[in-house]
Amino acid sequence: MRQVVVTGVGAVSPLGVGARTLYERWRAGTSGIEDGLGPASEFEPREHFSVKEARRADRFTQFALVAAAEALNEAGWEGELPYDATRIATVIGTGIGGIGTLEHGKEILIEQGAKKVPPLSIPLMMSNAAPAAISMRHGLQGPCHGIVSACSGGADAIGAAKRIILAGEADAVVTGGSEAALTPLSKAAFAALDALSTSGISRPFDARRDGFVMGEGAGILILEDSEAAAARGVKPLAILRGYGASADAYHITAPDKDGGGPARAMTTALGDAGLTIDDVDYINAHGTSTQLNDRAETFAIKLALGERAGKIPVSSLKSAIGHLLGAAGAVEAVATILALRDRVAPPTLGYEEPEEGLDLDYVPQRARQLEINGGPAVALSNSFGFGGHNAVLCLEAP
Amino acid sequence: MATTATPQKVEEVITDALTQFGPERDEISREKTFEELDIDSLDLAELSQIIEDEFGVQLKGDDVGKIKTVGDAVDLVVSRAA
Question: Of A105, A240, A254, A320, which residue is the least packed, with the fewest Cβ within 10 Å?
Answer without folding.
Answer: A254
